[in-house]
Amino acid sequence: MDIDLRSDTVTRPTAAMREAMMAAPLGDDVLGDEPTVQALEAKVAALLGKDAALFTPSGTMANQLAIRCHTEPGDEIVAHAESHIIHYETGSPAALSGCMIRPIDGPHGQFDAHAVQAAIRGSDIHSPKSRLLVLENTQNRAGGTVWPLEAARSVADAARGAGLAVHIDGARLFNAAIAAGYGAATFASIADTVSVCFSKGLGAPVGSALCGPAPLIARARRFRKMFGGGMRQSGLLAAACIHALDHHVQRLADDHANARHLASLLQGIPGTRLDPGLEGIQTNMVFLSLDASLGTAAEVCTRLASVGVRMIPMGARRIRAVTHLDVDRASIERAAGTVRSMLTRGAP
Ligand code: TLP
User: Does position 179 have pLDDT exceeding 80, yes or no?
Assistant: First the structure.
C-alpha cells in the first residue's frame, strides 16, 4: 500500500466515524431542519467562542464567504504573500467578491503590526479601501507554522485600529492550538471571523465551518446558497465532523511528533534541505527543498509515487509531506527510507 503524505486531507473515515455517520438523525439543511448540522454548528461556534457558525463543503468556501461578507467590490485584503487565499483558491477573492489582495512578506508566514500599518491605504479617492486582514494559522506554505498568540493579537489590533475586519484562515487552527498550548477560542478571539476545517488533520471526509457574529453568519448563509453550497441531508457529513471534534483533536500531537521524526530521518540527504529546518517543524508538515541536480519537485514526486511514497510539489523545487491519522510511526520510517535511498541513488 502506498504511504500517502500528500496532505492531511487524504484520510479515510475510521470505522467509529462511519458508525457515527450512519446513526445521525437527518433533515434538510436548506429547508432549515437538519438536526445534526445544527448540532455541529452550535458545537463549533461554542468551541471557538463565536455567536454562530455555518457548515460549508470546503475551507475554500468558508474563507470566500468570510471575504464576501466583510468586503465590497474594489476593496483590498491584506494578507501574507504565501497565503492559501492567494495561491490555492483559484483567484476567488477577485472572482466572487471583486477584491484585490495586498501581499505582505515576512518570515514563517508571519509579519508584524508595522508591516500591517504600512500596507493599509489612506482614504485617497484613487486607492482601494483596505477592508480586511486575513491571518493563516497554521501557515501552510511557510511550513505549517504557528502564530504566537501575542504576535497575532498585535497584528489584528493594528488592523482593527485602522477600521479593518480580521478573518483567520484556521484550516489547521486545532493543530496550532495543540502545538502552541493556547485554546482555539483564545486565538479566535483576536478576530471577527474564523474558518476551521474538519477534513484536514481532524480526519472527516468533508466539511469546514465559518464562525463569527450571528448577523454576519446569517448573510454568509445566503451567500453559501448563492455559491451553490446549500446542502440537504448534510447531517451525514456533520456527524463525521462532530466525531472528529470529539475524538481527533488531542491526537494531533501524534501527527506533530511524527512530522518531527520524519524530518529528522530526512535531514542531511545530499542535495536536499529541510525548509524550514528541523527546529522549525512545529506541526504536521515537512518541506524538502531540492537542488537542481535532483530534478524538479514534480519529477521527484512522480518518481517517489512509482515506489509507493506520495508527496506533493509545493513550488518548482520544494516538496511537501504531511502527517495524519492514517500514517503511523512505521509508515513514516518506511517512507523516509524510500526517499533517502531514491534521492541518494539519483535520477533513474
Ligand atoms: N489546503 C490544501 C491545498 O489546497 C493546498 C492542502 O493540501 O494543504 N486554508 C488552508 C490554510 C489550507 O491549507 C486549505 C487546504 C484550505 C484553506 C482550503 O481547504 P479546502 O481544500 O477544504 O477548500
Answer: yes
Q: Show the cell assigned to 267.
A: 535531514
Q: How far apart are CA 141 and CA 109, in angstroms?
A: 7
- Residue 129: strand pairing partners: 75
Q: How confident is the model over 74-132, as pLDDT tens digits?
A: 999 999 999 999 999 999 999 999 999 999 999 999 999 999 999 999 999 999 999 99
Do the Cβ atoms of 121 and 147 come closer than 8 Å? no
Q: Which of 140, 173, 174, 287 to mutate to test the pocket of ligand 1 (most atoms within 8 A of CB)?
A: 140
| Chain-centre distance for alpha carbon 339 | 26
198-247 pLDDT, tens per residue? 999 999 999 999 999 999 999 999 999 999 999 999 999 999 999 999 99
What are the structural domains, with CATH classification, of the chain?
15-247 (3.40.640.10), 251-345 (3.90.1150.10)
- With cell 508527496, the residue in question is 311
CA separation for the pair 101, 81 (Å, rounded): 9
For ligand 1, say whether the CB of 9 is within 6 Å of any of its atoms: yes
Residue of the CA atom closest to atom 7 of ligand 1: 7
CA distance 322 to 332: 10
Phi/psi-derived region of residue 194, left when phi > 0, alpha when psi is between -120 and 50, beta in every other case? beta
